[in-house]
Structure formats: C-alpha cells, structure tokens
Amino acid sequence: GTLEGDIAASKITFFRLQSSADTKLKAYIAQGEILPVATHSFGGIGVFAIPEMGRFYRHVLISKNYPHHGAVAFSHVGKALYTVFQYLGIEDVAFNQPKGMLYKDENPFN
User: Fold this and answer.
1) Is 78 helix (H, G, I), strand (E, B) or coil?
2) Where are any strands of DSSP class E within the chain?
3) What is the bridge-based pairing of β-strands 44-45 and 5-6?
4) Bridge partners of 6?
5) Rounded CA gap, 58 and 81, in Å?
6) Strands 10-19, 71-73: parallel, antiparallel or unpaired by DSSP?
7) pTM score of the predicted model
8) Cα 85 to Cα 37, 49, 55, 110, distances in angstroms
9) Which H or E run includes 42?
10) Of the options 3.30.9.10, 3.20.14.10, 1.10.3720.10, 3.40.50.720, the CATH number for the domain spanning 5-95
C-alpha cells in the first residue's frame, strides 16, 4: 500500500548527494519548511517552502543537471549534512543562498 494524506507542517532539509559518470560526488542542501496547506490530493503529499527557491532551482538544480527527486529530513540538519559532505571530500556542495548573496553565474543587475 501507499501512504495517504498531507505531510504535517514542520521544518525540513531538502538534499541530494550523487555521483557523476566520472565518479565525482556533488550535493545540495536547502533548508525550509512544510506549509500547513490542505492539498486535497492523493498519496503522501505536502507543500514545501524553501527561501529563495526560484534562484536555487535555476542556479543549482537546473544549471547543475540535478534530477527531479531529492531526500527530505524532517528537521533543520543542514549544518550536520554540510559537515559530513566536507568529511567525504565533496567540493561541490550547493545551498539555497540568501537574497543578496549571488550564485557564481547570477547576473548582479537583476
């Protein structure tokens, strides 16, 4: 069977760790929350709110060719994940940068 119902509102960390074809590891981490929104849908579903998600989506998920799915921790654990990824020697760890902190390829005149 499947899980049915809305995911309860809570803090979340959305993340992914993956390897490329040339064996390089890369990762992203984004902290946010699940909103208390009734979805009126089926399955296990929730509405995620991640600060600066539009920029994060464009400059990390799309530009670095990440697939659609990621993992979710139901707490803010970004600091611990970032430390683990550093211990693993991962050089490319992206995160949802706050407003005013530009991504490498972001136009400062937007």
Assistant:
1) helix
2) 5-6, 10-19, 25-35, 44-45, 47-49, 71-73, 92-95
3) parallel
4) 45
5) 22
6) antiparallel
7) 0.89
8) 33, 24, 22, 31
9) none
10) 3.20.14.10
CA atoms of 16 and 58, how far apart (whole Å) = 16
pLDDT in tens, 20-75: 888 999 999 999 999 999 998 888 899 999 999 999 999 999 999 999 899 999 99
| Residue found by looking up tokens 């706050």 in the block | 98
With tokens 């709110």, the residue in question is 49
- Identity at 4, one-letter amino acid code: E
Written as six digits, the tokens of 102 are: 């530009």
pLDDT digits (tens, 9 = 90+) for 62-104: 999 999 899 999 999 999 999 999 999 999 999 999 999 999 9
Q: Is residue 15 classed as helix, strand or coil in its secondary structure?
A: strand
Type of residue at 3: L
